[in-house]
């Protein structure tokens, strides 16, 4: 019995093998004869009308939900670049900002329009600032950010690869032009705690910026760009830098500053004490402070909802038009009389 | 340039001519790299890509890693170089095999076994039965006492029959030993590629026999690559060696054919190139302006105050590199790849295998499949192409009596059989001409049956018929011919053979009856080549009627005639003939002239009628293809009536009143001119009517029309959808193809015989039928098929699919490149026109190589309509013919599509990702996946 069973299973295996082979041969045959099985959906009018209708029916609700979500996000945007220049310097903003002897603090008052649920994200926003400029984008060295001075080819960082004959860490225009305005938030005389940890991508902190790499010879040149860094903190913990180093795609961009981890009530007045250090005046860039809550869809963004509604409604319109055309000029399927050479 | 070859004299020819070393190699080890690179870079596209790749090495301007261009570039170059190298290596191997073959050669009187490559001009080469001939030889000795040997020339001209070769008269009867020591001079023209002609002279030097000049013709040569058959041994003097042999001269790589689609793609590439330059100039200038006005204020960019002289060029060059992806580097490679797949589909097609011979169709030229769908004119041969070329003797007319009718062949006609048994002299004569006047070689098979090997199917049919009527050709031994008639054996000595040429249209033999010693001339040929030369007293009316009647039935007719020749007349003529045959200049023409002097006052014996059946499915195929808007021209060497009958029976032309046949004829210029104008006038009037108008022209009138009235004839060619050209020569066939091509029509020539080769090579597409007339046409053609009816499938299925697929694939390649390029351009508007690349090198590479190249391969097995539908409605081919799927306007559509898709992808990826929060890498990834989805959607939408 045993033997027989073995035999049959062997036979089975052989049979299976043959069937696989013949199937393979059959597929190859079909391929060579260009006879592979295929499905040929015919785009009949009713099919098209239904598809468009279905698209509209699905897209419009999605769009409406998205729009609603986007509207539930509360956003406070405050431009501060002009206001934070004292009256007497308004005529010559550039020399004011470049004068390092003046202490450039400034206060803003923000009124909370609606109840804002924690976490509330703090962004700074720059306009007309070309972080995507070719010279700028290229001027960095990822190896150096990870390995520090061990990687010594910093030619890609030009023109900010070194100062005083020594290489700078981090090198390059991006790091050199680090944003350095600071903000403090006070509500009813008590300072709001701003969490400035975990504002950068985790992968950046862990894998792109070295834990053992400390700033060195940074902002030591004759011409100082933006902010400086604490030489005792490794680059992987310099989250402001990490955020800044992710270059923005558009000339107008927001970057995360921190989070407020308590709710703000409607009609609260928040005083912002800020140090207005960063020079955007020489090229007419705007600076804004943004406080925003978030939803499951992220920040405030109406575009997605509008796009969905637009596409959905236009496909419904198209389907209606097609339907009308079809009802008015019905044409039987597969009628050869309509072929161009038969007319 | 003449050659003087000293037989058996090594010193004089040692350095004059090359050794018998074959070399088909294009490269050597040393020059492969430079030569191959030079060849590849002579193409504009490659130069462009190289320039781009070099520019990318300049890190100041390169937007991406140079590897993203160098990688594909090197890959593409490596692929084509490897292909070339492989082909060349195979050629080298086959050369080597041929070169190292050992042959017996007499050098300075001693017979040695040497390698084939060491043969020199003037050496005597010995061959044994079934040996391959190593170089072109002039025969000087054979084992046969009559000085005959048989060769198979299949490798040379594709004809499978055996051909006889003769040793020149001067060497006749020389014995074995003497041949080792023979000395002499052969005077012959320089190497050429005409395998049907060799006009030389042989003069043996003293002490060898007389000092007479002996003419040499192609009959005295055995050419390289032939095989010696049925002959124990043969020897000959090497006259052409190595690459200078007739075969070597005919070889050579034919000009690559460029399809209409290729030409269109090149044009579109040029247009894109111009567009790219414009974009670069505009953006570059704008970029420089922006840099001077804005970028200097942006302190964080830190523009230097001082800049080098080339600063103004930097931004335009950056844009040039950004836009360089507009022209997809892969298009040529992927098109070549899919085209060879289309060709394979043709080879694989089970429905195009000839059921009789099991020969599959074959695409020799893999690059022109899509042109099949754009054919507008098909020029077809008749015999063997439309018909089966299997000749059967059906009827005859002897001395005014018609034998054979609808119910039976002449072979079974009781009247004829009775006439034979009663020994009617006319009938006997008639049968003798049938059996004698030909070039058929009878060969005994092992079973004892007689097999006839013939070059011409007609002759074979005649000899077979004669054999069935008891006049059996038994043996042909050099000049002695044996015939068995009713048990008695008749012997004839063939004194002279006046060969068939397409100009003379007849052949004759001068024979001497060994029994009675009477000399007679036996002729057979086309009616107009025989009947005018009938002797004055004879009434030829009945024969004209017979010819008329037979050709109405679609039968091929031949007239047989004879006359007695006086001994003196023959001797006198023989001298002239000899002289004419040994001239070096215009020999063919002089021989024809001399032949004319003997071929007169003929007694016409009768007319034979041979049937050549239509191939299966010919009428249907022609009808379908005509519905598909393809115009048919029939070019045949046959006579007018037969051609018209065949044309009628295969739907070529419609019978009255639906169709109308206009004929252009005339013998003089004026007549031809008048009839041409008349036909043209009728054509112009009837173009608006739904009437099938065709014209018929014969070779003579065609010659005049092409020479003097080319313009009028061209207009006629354009107006007429159908034409029948009869009595045309191979070169006229080629001329007609040329004429149609000059009017910008896509032509397809189809034929089966050696006389179609020139037209097949001239036409945009040459199709050969691997038929009974040998493989010559099939070998020269781009496609070879077994039967005419496969043409329908070749054009409607394979051609059409190939065209659709290539049209899609090429435009899609541009679309996907433009799509990504437009996004780069849009991004440069928001990145200060500084030439930043939104995408990094890896994603660009992945996009080009992986995401967009592989999914689209699906389209190579895409079928928009099923084969059955296309066959039912061949009119669908109009779309392909008119090039509706690939032309500037469809391309503009694709261009607009890529622009639109780029805008959508760009706007959405910027805005959806919350406008201000978007950062470069995120945007680039979103945009890239947008592109990938869009192009995948396009592929899915376009393939059915």
UniProtKB/TrEMBL annotation, chain A:
Designated name of the protein: ALA-interacting subunit 2
Automatic annotation (TrEMBL), chain B:
Cofactor(s) of this protein: Mg(2+)
Enzyme Commission identifier(s): 7.6.2.1
Domain P-type ATPase N-terminal positions: 5-70
SUPFAM superfamilies (alphabetical): Calcium ATPase, transduction domain A, Calcium ATPase, transmembrane domain M, HAD-like, Metal cation-transporting ATPase, ATP-binding domain N
Amino acids binding Mg(2+): 381, 383, 752, 756
Residue ranges annotated for the P-type ATPase A domain, each copy included: 100-162
Location within or outside the cell: Endomembrane system; Membrane
Molecular-function GO terms, alphabetical: ATP binding; ATP hydrolysis activity; ATPase-coupled intramembrane lipid transporter activity; magnesium ion binding
Residues annotated as transmembrane: 44-61, 268-290, 818-839, 894-915
Membrane topology of the entry: Multi-pass membrane protein
Start and end residues of each P-type ATPase C-terminal domain: 778-944
List of catalytic residues: 381 (4-aspartylphosphate intermediate)
Enzyme class: translocase
Any GO CC annotation of this UniProt entry: membrane
Catalytic reactions of this protein: ATP + H2O + phospholipidSide 1 = ADP + phosphate + phospholipidSide 2
UniProt-listed GO biological process terms: phospholipid transport
Annotated binding of ATP, by residue: 381-383, 459, 500, 524, 556, 636-638, 727, 733, 755-756
Keywords: ATP-binding, Magnesium, Membrane, Metal-binding, Nucleotide-binding, Translocase, Transmembrane, Transmembrane helix
Family note: Belongs to the cation transport ATPase (P-type) (TC 3.A.3) family. Type IV subfamily.
Protein name: Phospholipid-transporting ATPase
């Amino acid at each position: 019995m045993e033997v027989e069973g073995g035999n049959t299973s062997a036979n089975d295996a052989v049979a299976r093998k043959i069937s696989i082979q013949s199937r393979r041969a059959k597929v190859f045959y079909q391929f060579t004869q260009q006879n592979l099985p295929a499905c040929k959906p015919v785009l009949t009018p009713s099919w098209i009308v239904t598809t468009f209708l279905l698209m509209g029916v699905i897209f419009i609700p999605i769009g409406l939900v998205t729009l609603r979500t986007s509207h539930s996000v509360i956003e406070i945007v405050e431009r501060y670049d002009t206001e934070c220049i004292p009256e007497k310097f308004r005529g010559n903003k550039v020399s004011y900002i470049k004068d390092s002897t003046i202490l450039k603090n400034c206060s803003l008052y923000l009124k909370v329009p609606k109840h804002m649920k924690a976490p509330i994200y703090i962004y700074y926003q720059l306009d007309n600032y070309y972080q995507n400029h070719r010279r700028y984008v290229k001027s960095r060295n990822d190896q150096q950010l990870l390995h520090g001075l061990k990687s010594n080819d910093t030619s890609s960082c030009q023109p900010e690869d070194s100062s005083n004959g020594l290489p700078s860490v981090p090198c390059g225009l991006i790091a050199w032009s680090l944003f350095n305005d600071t903000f403090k938030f006070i509500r009813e005389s008590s300072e709001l705690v701003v969490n400035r940890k975990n504002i950068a991508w985790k992968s950046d902190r862990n894998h792109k910026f070295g834990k053992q790499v400390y700033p060195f010879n940074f902002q030591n040149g004759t011409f100082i760009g933006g902010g400086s860094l604490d030489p005792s903190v490794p680059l992987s913990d310099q989250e402001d830098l990490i955020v800044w180093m992710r270059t923005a795609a558009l000339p107008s961009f927001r970057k995360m500053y921190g989070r407020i981890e308590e709710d703000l009530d409607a009609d609260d007045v928040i005083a912002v004490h800020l140090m207005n250090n960063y020079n955007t005046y020489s090229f007419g860039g705007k600076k804004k402070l943004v406080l925003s809550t978030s939803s499951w869809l992220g920040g405030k963004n109406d575009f997605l909802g509008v796009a969905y509604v637009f596409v959905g409604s236009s496909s419904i319109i198209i389907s209606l038009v097609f339907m009308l055309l079809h009802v008015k000029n019905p044409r039987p399927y597969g009628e050869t009389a309509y072929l161009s050479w038969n007319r | 340039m003449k050659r003087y070859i000293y037989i058996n004299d090594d010193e004089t020819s040692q350095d004059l001519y090359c050794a018998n070393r074959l070399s088909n190699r294009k490269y050597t080890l040393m020059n492969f790299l430079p030569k191959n690179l030079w060849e590849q870079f002579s193409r504009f596209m490659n130069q462009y890509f190289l320039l781009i790749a070099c520019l990318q090495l300049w890190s100041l301007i390169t937007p991406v890693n140079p590897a993203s261009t160098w990688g594909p570039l090197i890959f593409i170059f490596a692929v084509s170089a490897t292909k070339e190298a492989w082909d060349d290596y195979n050629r080298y191997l086959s050369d080597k095999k041929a070169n190292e073959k050992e042959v017996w050669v007499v050098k300075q009187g001693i017979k040695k076994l040497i390698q084939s490559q060491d043969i020199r001009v003037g050496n005597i080469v010995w061959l044994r039965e079934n040996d391959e001939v190593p170089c072109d030889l002039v025969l000087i000795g054979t084992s046969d006492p009559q000085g005959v040997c048989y060769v198979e020339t299949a490798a040379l001209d594709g004809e499978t029959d055996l051909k006889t070769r003769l040793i020149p008269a001067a060497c006749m009867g020389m014995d074995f030993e003497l041949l080792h020591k023979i000395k002499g001079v052969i005077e012959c023209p320089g190497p050429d590629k005409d395998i049907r002609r060799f006009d030389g002279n042989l003069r043996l030097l003293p002490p060898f026999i007389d000092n007479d000049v002996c003419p040499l013709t192609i009959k005295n040569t055995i050419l390289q690559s032939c095989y010696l058959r049925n002959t124990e041994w043969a020897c000959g003097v090497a006259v052409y060696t190595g690459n200078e042999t007739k075969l070597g001269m005919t070889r050579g790589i034919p000009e690559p054919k460029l399809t209409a689609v290729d030409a269109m793609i090149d044009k579109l590439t040029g247009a894109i190139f111009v567009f790219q330059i414009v974009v670069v100039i505009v953006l570059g200038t704008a970029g420089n302006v922006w840099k001077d006005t804005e970028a200097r204020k942006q302190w964080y960019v830190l523009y230097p105050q001082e800049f080098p002289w080339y600063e103004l060029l930097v931004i335009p060059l950056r844009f040039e590199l950004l836009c360089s992806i507009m022209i997809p580097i892969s298009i040529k490679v992927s098109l070549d790849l899919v085209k060879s797949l289309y060709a394979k589909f043709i080879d694989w097609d089970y429905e195009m295998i000839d059921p009789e011979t099991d020969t599959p169709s074959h695409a020799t030229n893999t690059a022109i499949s899509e042109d099949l769908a754009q054919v507008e004119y098909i020029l077809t041969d008749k015999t063997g192409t439309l018909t089966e070329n299997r000749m059967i003797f059906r009827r005859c007319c002897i001395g005014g009596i018609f034998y054979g009718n609808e119910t039976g062949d002449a072979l079974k006609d009781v009247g004829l059989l009775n006439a034979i048994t009663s020994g009617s002299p006319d009938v006997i004569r008639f049968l003798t001409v049938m059996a004698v006047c030909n070039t058929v070689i009878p060969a005994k098979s092992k079973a004892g049956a007689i097999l006839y090997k013939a070059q011409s199917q007609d002759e074979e049919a005649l000899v077979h018929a004669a054999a069935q009527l008891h006049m059996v050709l038994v043996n042909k031994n050099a000049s002695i011919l044996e015939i068995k008639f009713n048990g008695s054996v008749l012997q004839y000595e063939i004194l002279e053979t006046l060969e068939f040429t397409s100009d003379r249209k007849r052949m004759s033999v001068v024979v001497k009856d060994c029994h009675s010693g009477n000399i007679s001339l036996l002729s057979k040929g086309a009616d107009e080549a025989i009947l005018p030369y009938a002797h004055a007293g004879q009434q030829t009316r009945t024969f004209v009627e017979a010819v008329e009647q037979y050709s109405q039935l679609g039968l091929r007719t031949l007239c047989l005639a004879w006359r007695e020749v006086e001994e003196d007349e023959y001797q006198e003529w023989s001298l002239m003939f000899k002289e004419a045959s040994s001239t070096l200049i215009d020999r063919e023409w002089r021989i024809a002239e001399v032949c004319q002097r003997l071929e007169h006052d003929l007694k016409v014996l009768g007319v034979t009628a041979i049937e050549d059946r239509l191939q299966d499915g010919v009428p249907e195929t022609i009808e379908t293809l005509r519905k598909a808007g393809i115009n048919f021209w029939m070019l045949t060497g046959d006579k007018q009536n037969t051609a018209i009958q065949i044309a009628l029976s295969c739907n070529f032309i419609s019978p009255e009143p639906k169709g109308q046949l206009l004929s252009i004829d005339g013998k003089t210029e004026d007549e031809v001119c008048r009839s041409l104008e008349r036909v043209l006038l009728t054509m112009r009037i009837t173009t608006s009517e739904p009437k099938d108008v065709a014209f018929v022209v014969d070779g003579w009138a065609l010659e005049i029309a092409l020479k003097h009235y080319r313009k009028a004839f061209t207009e006629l060619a354009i107006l007429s959808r159908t034409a029948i050209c009869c009595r045309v020569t191979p070169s006229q066939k080629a001329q007609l193809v040329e004429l149609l091509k000059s009017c910008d029509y896509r032509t397809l020539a189809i034929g089966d015989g050696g006389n179609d080769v020139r037209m097949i090579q001239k036409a945009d597409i040459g199709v050969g039928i691997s038929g009974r007339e040998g493989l010559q046409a099939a070998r020269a053609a781009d496609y070879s098929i077994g039967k005419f009816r496969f043409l329908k499938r070749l054009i409607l299925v394979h051609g059409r699919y190939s065209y659709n697929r290539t049209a899609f694939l090429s435009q899609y390649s541009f679309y996907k490149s433009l799509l990504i390029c437009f996004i780069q351009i849009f991004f440069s508007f928001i990145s200060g026109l500084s030439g930043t690349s939104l995408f990094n090198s890896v994603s660009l590479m992945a996009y080009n190589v992986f995401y967009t190249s592989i999914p689209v391969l699906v389209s190579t097995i895409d079928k928009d309509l099923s084969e059955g539908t296309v066959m039912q409605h061949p009119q669908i081919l109009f779309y392909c013919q008119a090039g509706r799927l690939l032309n500037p306007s469809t391309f503009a559509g694709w261009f607009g599509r890529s622009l639109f898709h780029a805008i959508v992808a760009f706007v959405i990826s910027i805005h959806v990702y919350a406008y201000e929060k978007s950062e470069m890498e995120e945007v680039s990834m979103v945009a890239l996946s947008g592109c990938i989805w869009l192009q995948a959607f396009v592929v899915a939408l376009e393939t059915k």
